[in-house]
């Protein structure tokens, strides 16, 4: 959803669609002919474009800053657990998980010139935890280039806001309470006032698999090969750009509550709302001091 006030009353719908089409042609793992898919398929003719390079470099940056919690080389494990682009059924065979770990790690792939160079052919990338946020940035930057001052870009819950809404007020966005199976908008955890910044939320309440009565979250810890098992239920991050917010939201979900709080104390450029369950199963929240929000 892209809402904007056009200074010249011109509709940019078709141009926005073209921007998103070009973006998907580069970074969508669900398109077999996309650039990232070709790199995953070890196509030696694949040439890195500026979209791919930008996201890859940011992924490297946040992987280091999060002590490896954020890792786009987790793709083989995400596919094995049934959350990836292959459509496979989940497989929790420890031997298979161990065998795939040799392909995981940000040190196993790099950009040299206009090529993505892997240490091993089995290394694959899944940028879904950062690319969606960047797609919101791309559309936001396009609107800014057209002189649009007031807009809200919302792509799958990753948002960029500038200026004010139709009522002349700062944009207000709801953060959902992370309840398994709840309808969208059914339960609100907070209302965030997004003043010329970006916001992204990562949660495990909507994407999980159940194996032998046990629920496994879609957030895979690249350092262990297994879905995270902790009491952090969702992470909402506010940053200057949505690519950064998106990646950090995933990094926090991979890190857990205590580690995320420690990381936030180091990265004061971020604001965040962490929703977690206490020892009694009740929802609690941790919010950074600068978060402009009403928390329920």
N to C succession of SSEs: EHHHHHEEHEEEEEEEEHHEEE
CATH superfamily of the largest domain: ApbE-like domains
The second-level CATH architecture of the largest domain is Roll
CATH class category label of the largest domain: Alpha Beta
**Percentage of residues in helical conformation:** 25-40%
Shape: globular
Q: Could you describe the largest sheet, including whether it forms a barrel?
A: 7 strands, antiparallel
Order of strands in the sheet with most strands: 1-4-5-8-11-12-13
Distance between the termini: 25 Å
Mean of all residue-level pLDDT scores: 92
The assigned structural class equals alpha+beta
Rounded to the nearest angstrom, the radius of gyration is: 19 Å
* Uncertain spans: none
Number of domains: 2
Q: How many β-strands, per DSSP?
A: 14
Q: What is the number of helices?
A: 8
User: Could you tell me the strand content as a percent range?
Assistant: 15-25%
CATH topology of the largest domain: T-fold
Descriptive notes:
By secondary structure, the chain is α+β, with helices and mostly antiparallel strands. It has two domains: about 20-130, T-fold, CATH 1.10.3980; about 150-295, ApbE-like domains (T-fold). The chain has helices at about 15-25, 35-40, 50-65, 75-80, 95-100, 130-145, 240-255, 255-265; strands spanning about 1-5, 110, 115-120, 150-155, 160, 170-175, 190-195, 200-205, 210, 215, 230-240, 270-275, 285, 295. The chain has a seven-stranded antiparallel beta sheet with strand order 1-4-5-8-11-12-13. Helix 1 (about 15-25) packs antiparallel against helix 6 (about 130-145). The protein is globular, with a radius of gyration of 19 Å. The chain starts with a strand and ends with a strand.
